[in-house]
Design goal:
Blueprint (H helix, E strand, L loop, with lengths): L19 E4 L4 H12 L4 E7 L21 H14 L3 E5 L1 H17 L6 H20 L4 E3 L4 E6 L4 E6 L16 H4 L2 E2 L7 H10 L21 H12 L8 E4 L5 E5 L22 E6 L4 E5 L5 E12 L9 E6 L7 E7 L6 E10 L6 E6 L2 E8 L1
Parallel strand pairs: 1-2, 1-4, 2-3, 4-7, 8-11
Antiparallel strand pairs: 5-6, 6-17, 8-9, 10-11, 12-15, 12-17, 13-14, 13-16, 14-15, 16-17
Helix pairs in contact: 1-2, 1-6, 3-4
């Protein structure tokens, strides 16, 4: 990191003659960010990434489905907000990159028995680096988004720290753990100190046209939430022949208790849709794509005390060099649990040992490490 007092060290301070590039999704949060910075007299430019062609795979769209992230309506809304604010606005087509670095890995991981997080993949590989490159082309020094998180410079370590948003119900740091120091140095999260109701009120006071718009919920390329149907339809569109996709559902002892039409229809912890009539509830505890087996068991069979992560990114410090007591989230809505993390054979790998066993530890999801509201880093669950 550059020494204190250097220009690079102070880079998060906007240069008076340089605009701030605002990532505008068309929702209330990013629109409020643009309006807030505009009110503060900052020169800004709005930018929207077109990530997925909503006309593809039309048979998957649920009747009357709403709340999709990054829809065409969102692009129209973002453009309208920019017009109302009187700021330059651009739409950039990133569909090819999004498909290569988010959609295809999403499909591949599901078929390999993992449960990926497309929003994290999108943040890590599509949104921030390309957005910063586009900002450079427009002469913008900083970028701003509507994420509920906070970034600050720790002068003692000369590192940028990420902290959770003050609204715990909207905190998005679980999806942002992959951001690097270079990215954090140029990123603003103006809403991190607000609650969602406060943002709504702020939007109204700033006359933001989408102040009452509902939050998006669905993943942009899976509008009806049916991941398995998306994978089947995507393969059909691509003309890729599917291998035999059916097999046995077995219990922990390997005894057949049912059949299925493809392991990609199942994820760890799933109970519904198994089609098994037993005297007790059964849950998916593992999938085996190589043998096309789905293994089921009781709720207590889902409990695990340990896990390992790979491709870890450390934010609060350069590397994990010794055991550390942390709080760990293994899903976005998971209540952070106390654990000890230990370094392994590589800086990007770590072992996690929970104080109490955790339910449904799922390969492909992320484990994100916290010290109170400070995000230490995260990694992918093996």
């Amino acid at each position: 990191m550059p020494p204190p007092g250097s220009a690079a060290f102070r880079r998060r301070i906007p240069m008076p003659d340089k605009p701030i590039a605002v990532a505008m999704s068309g929702g209330v949060d990013s629109s409020t960010v643009a309006a807030l910075l505009r009110q503060q007299g900052k020169p800004i430019v709005g930018m929207t990434m077109q990530l997925w062609n909503q006309r593809r795979l039309p048979g998957l769209t649920a009747e009357g489905a709403t709340g999709r992230c990054c829809s065409l309506d969102d692009v129209y809304d973002a453009r309208y907000v920019a017009q109302q604010l009187g700021i330059p606005y651009y739409v950039v087509n990133f569909e090819s990159r999004f498909e290569d670095q988010v959609v295809k890995p999403f499909v591949e991981q599901y078929l390999s028995g993992r449960t990926p997080i497309p929003c994290t993949l999108c943040n890590n590989f599509v949104k921030f680096d390309p957005f910063l490159e586009l900002a450079d082309g427009l002469g913008a020094d900083l970028v701003a988004t509507g994420h509920y998180a906070r970034v600050e410079l720790d002068e003692a370590s000369h590192r940028y720290h990420m902290r959770t948003g003050v609204d715990s119900s909207k905190d998005q740091t679980y999806f942002l753990w992959g951001l690097t120091q270079a990215q954090l140095a140029r990123t603003l999260f103006p809403l991190g100190g607000y609650t969602k109701p406060q943002v709504r009120e702020l939007a109204r006071s700033l006359n933001v046209p989408v102040a009452e718009k509902h939050d998006s919920q669905e993943i942009c390329f899976v509008p009806n939430g049916d991941y398995a149907a998306f994978i089947d339809r995507y393969f059909e569109e691509q003309g890729i022949p599917r291998q035999q996709a059916h097999g046995e559902i077995v219990d922990r002892e390997g005894r057949p208790v049912g059949s299925h039409a493809g392991v990609h229809h199942y994820t760890v912890g799933q109970r519904r849709g198994l089609g098994i009539a037993k005297g007790e509830p059964l849950y998916v505890i593992a999938t085996e794509p190589a043998t096309q087996r789905v293994i089921v068991g009781r709720n207590e069979d889902l409990l695990r005390r340990e896990l390992t992560v790979s491709d870890a990114n450390w934010i609060a410090f350069p590397a994990l060099t010794e055991p550390r007591r942390v709080q760990v989230k293994i899903r976005n809505k998971h209540a952070a649990a106390w654990a000890t993390i230990d370094p392994m054979d590589a800086p990007t790998r770590a072992r996690v040992c929970f104080d109490e066993p955790q339910r449904a530890v799922t390969p492909g999801q992320a484990a994100v490490f916290y010290d109170g509201d400070l995000v230490l880093g995260g990694g992918w669950i093996d």
